[in-house]
Amino acid sequence: METRLTITAQFISDGRALGYDGERLTLTAQFISDGRALGYVGEGLERYVAEQKVEYERAKKEEFERETARLEREERVRKEAQAEEKARLEREERLRKEAKAEEERLRREAKADEAARHVRKEKARREENEMWKERDAREELKRKDELELARLKEKSAPEAGAVVGQAVEVRQRNVLDRLDKNFQGMKEEDDLLAYLTHFEAVAARCKIESKEWALLLSYKLTTPLKNLMLRDSLFLSDKYKDVKTALLRHADINAETCRVRSFAQSHTHGSHSAVV
Fold it and tell me: Count of CB atoms within 10 A of residue 104's CB?
């Protein structure tokens, strides 16, 4: 025991003599012990101790670098994981907002479509009501004419001629008054061809001679069309077809358009008649 203590004390003393202290002193003592065990003495021992010190410092530096690299790698992985998690949360938030915006857009579109359907339904209902009102008015006029004719036929033969003549004259005046009062004037937004077609149907139903149609029509048209008829003296014409052609040409409506619309209107009228 005393021998080992003496040797250790000698190693420490030798290390201090070489300028070492603390951990280095302990290592130096170990290096000196190992060197002497290997047979080194004097300068050889000093070189051995110096080489061991260099090797120890190199190994320690490499260990430090490895540990530093490991810590840096772990820190980098941690930051990358945090960045990925942040990106994932931001992506989920963006998708949530986009889904909410899309849902809101679809809701607004559905609401707008519902409102449009309601408007179309109400418009169709009003148009149907107007159509039935016009039909009822035509039927009522027809019944009145039939009653008037039946009443005239009941008169005696000598009086029939005079009475019928007076009735016809009165009826013509009534027809003109009825056309003037009940047939609405044309509006700026009205379709000219449809308006003329309606006018012709009413005038024919009222049994007004076609040579008088131009004059009657001039009272019902819009101001620009009235001016056209006045400028070209169309209201004096007894050829309604020529007047109609001039009006349609002025409105830039060609014959093909007239044919297509006439077919569509006749088809629609036929469908309504079949339903009735």
Answer: 10
Q: Tell me if 241 is assigned to some domain.
A: yes
**How many angstroms separate the CA atoms of 129 and 123, rounded?**
10
Please state whether the predicted TM-score (pTM) of the whole model is above 0.90.
Answer: no
Name the domain count of the chain: 1
Which residue segment(s) compose the domain that 243 sits in?
A: 182-265
* 75 within domain boundaries: no
Distance CA 28, CA 25 (A): 5
Condensed to tens digits (0 to 9), the pLDDT of residues 119-174 reads: 999 999 999 888 888 887 887 777 776 666 666 656 544 444 444 445 445 555 56
Is 220 contained in some domain? Answer: yes
Residue 251 lies in a domain: yes
